[in-house]
Each structure stands twice: as C-alpha cells, then as structure tokens.
TrEMBL record:
Transmembrane feature ranges: 39-64, 131-153
The protein, known as: C-type cytochrome
Domain Cytochrome c, first and last residues per copy: 194-273
Signal peptide: 1-29
Residue spans of biased composition, Polar residues class: 287-304
Molecular-function GO terms, alphabetical: electron transfer activity; heme binding; iron ion binding
Entry keywords, A to Z: Coiled coil, Electron transport, Heme, Iron, Membrane, Metal-binding, Signal, Transmembrane, Transmembrane helix, Transport
InterPro entries the record matches: CcoP_N (IPR032858), CcoP_N_sf (IPR038414), Cyt_c-like_dom (IPR009056), Cyt_c-like_dom_sf (IPR036909), Cyt_C_IC (IPR008168), Cytochrome_c_Oxidase_Subunit (IPR050597)
Region (Disordered): 276-304
Coiled-coil residue spans: 157-184
PROSITE patterns (alphabetical): CYTC (PS51007)
The keyword Iron-sulfur belongs to this UniProt entry's keyword annotation: no
Amino acid sequence: MNAFRISTFKKKALAGLILMFFLSQGLSAQGQYAADTQTIQLYVVAVMLIFVCVAVLITAIYTLQVMQFLLVKDSPETAIVQESLWSRIYKRYIAGDMTPVDPEKEKAIALSHSYDGIVELDNYMPPWLKYIFYGTIAFAIIYLVNFFSLGLVQTSEQEYMAEVQQAEIQIAEYRKANAAAIDENTAKVVKEEALLAQAKSIYEQNCKACHGGAGEGGVGPNLTDEYWIHGGDVKGVFKTIKYGIPQKGMIAWQQKLKPDEIQSVASYILSLQGTNPANAKEPQGEKLTSATNTSGPATLSVTD
C-alpha cells in the first residue's frame, strides 16, 4: 500500500512538473511583448520561481524513488508492478491494443467481402491515425473561424500587402537617407508615376510662369522639342535647375528643392519632349537626340 501511495504521488508530481513547464512557456511567450522594465523584471522573477519549483519537484521525485526502492527492498510482498508512463502513452495514443484477436471471434469482425479467399477484418483505426484525423477536423474549424470571422491571422493576400507596404516604407527611408548623395554627376531618369506626379506639382508651382504649364515656353525656352540651350539629358537639366542661369534670370533652386526633387523635376521635363503643346515657342539652341532614353550625355546634332 505504501508503494502504491508513493507511485500515486509521483504521478501528481510529474503532472505538476508538466504544468509548470507549460506555464513557463506561456510566461516566456508573453515576455516577448513586454515593453517596460518593471514588467520584464516581474517575468524574470516569475521564471526564477518556476525554476526553483521545478528543482524542488525533481528533488521530491528523486527522493520518492529512493524511498520506494527502500520499501520494496524491505517488503517485496507489498511491491506493485507499475507499467511505465511511456508504455501507457504508447498503448493508448499511438499503437493501441495490439493483442491478437481470438480466432473464434474473427468471424464477428470479418467484412462481407473477400479477395481471392483473403478476408478483411474490421479492425480499429490506430490511435495515432485517429488523432491526426481529429486534428485535421479541428484545424479546419479553426481555419474557417479565423479567416472568415475573427481574422486573428492574416491571409496570404493580407501578408503580401503588408510586406509591400513595409517594402515601400523601407524604399522611402532609403531614398530619404540617400537623397543628399544625388548630384549632377549621379542623377538618373526616374519613371515612377508617384515621383513624376510630385515633380509635375513642383513644376507647376515654380516653373510654369517662365516655361508654360505644358512646357511650351514663354519667357523661358520651349521644353517639349529637341532643342536645348543648356543641358538636354537628365544630368544637364539637373545641373541647370540646381545652379540656375543667373545671367538669363533663372535662379538656382538648390536651396529650395532637395536633390531627389530636382532629379524628379528633371525627369518630368524630359518626359515632356514630343508632346507638341499648343502655342509652342520656336526652337532655341542646338538639337539634342536621345535625351529621354539615357542618364548620360545626349548626342549632339547641330542643324541649320
């Protein structure tokens, strides 16, 4: 009887140990979201207490094992053969009852059909397979409730959109950090619609008065043809905007516009070539070709 009581207490102690383990996992998972120092300290103390409890439980289990060994040694007749925990779990949840069916009872579980004289028995489903099947049902229910009702976990489309938004934020931060590195030697043609739309707004606010709303020209030259007095490619236009042409009344915009904004405006101006707006001013300067297709120097072609 003493051995039985000790074995029962061991089961309770083991159950307590398992419970402590899962509680510790929960606390560690919650600790990941703790933001303030006091909460983190509280979690540290809780985890330390859990480790102390685990150590006490391990010591108690070991002590009980020693006591049981001594009791069994002194009174073998009181010993009760106990099946190991793993053996019980294996039989109940994995393999099931592997006891062969009595030949006299096979007829009761035999199916009505046979294959070449081979009769199939209506055996039970192995526990491991049965629990996997139950698990798929539970997973399907949780999946449906989550994605069609609760929305606790993102769908594939939502994850994709979130990653796209995060990438856009990173791109914006990169451009902001590297905007100062853009100059007349590194400027490139930008083709993003958002940047060109922003450049159009800047153009209409600052350049329209001299070059016209559509780039047709006014006080300043026509920007829609292939003739250029200054620049002609993105680097040349960038330089013209940045430093201006003081002798002709064009101010330097480097103090009012950021380098990336100047690059976008230069790209927008180059995109106006070939639009042929109404009331376009006569060509001025020299003809430059391929200005819109390269970030390098354009090809100079002097015409009569």
